[in-house]
Amino acid sequence: MSNKKWFFAVYGIAFFVISYFKFINDSTSKFISSHPRIESLLGFVVFYITVYLLSSTAKYFYSKKNKIPSGKKNNVHFGIENIAHFIVGIGFIITSLSLLGINPIQLITSLTIVAAAVAILTKEYIADFLSGIYLSFSNIFSINDYVKIDNQKGKIVEITMLKVRLLNDDEDVAIIPNSKVHSNEIINYTKKDARLMHVDFQIGLKYITSIEDLEKEIITSLNSFEEYIEPKSYALKVVEMKVDYLEVKFQYTLKVVDMELQQKIRRKTIREVFNFISSKQKTLA
Asked: What is the CATH number of the domain that holds 229?
């Protein structure tokens, strides 16, 4: 039995055991009712188990309907988990107040001004949470999509309640607030053609006599990868010309989608650009 099925079974048994002692067995039901703190604690446990079972069931049927392999997650799975965590968090706060002998409704009513101040102070967290819910159920991008968000490029690996985790080309994990993701321009390269790759770089004007020569140098340096790259798919494009340098994009199309191969070609391309500049520096010296 897998860990998920084991937890599902344990939580199911715990739910029925607590329900039996709370609602069916008269002696234990009276005892629990006479101890409000125990009643609140057991109520939270039942609430937590219910939310867990419902969210797990929703994810199971969603995966089954969309033929998603066991252990794999996409945006909707993270969205369901985020909503479940939020609901459990609210339940935990209410239960904690009850254990302290505080009536949550009366507290909220009497602290309206404080609540408004807290809302203002936590508006960024609220914005991140709401943006996370939107991103989880949208089709802007999915887990494992290769995207550009603001100045960050890489593969989406996780969408949490407040952040998006992105694995960039240097194998570093970039953590971006959901509200920033929502408000910035997003380029999803996977939605186009997952095989189409590019390397962006800048090069000083003094090192370039011809864009064609630089393109030939880079293409020649990638001869060892030619069996993995579509013939005639190479292209070196000038994105923007500045006063003393060019912003350049080198594009190529892989025959198959392979992130490890893409990283190798990217490193090789960057080395070749560096070697090209070094050779020009020696010529100019």
From this structure: 3.30.70.100
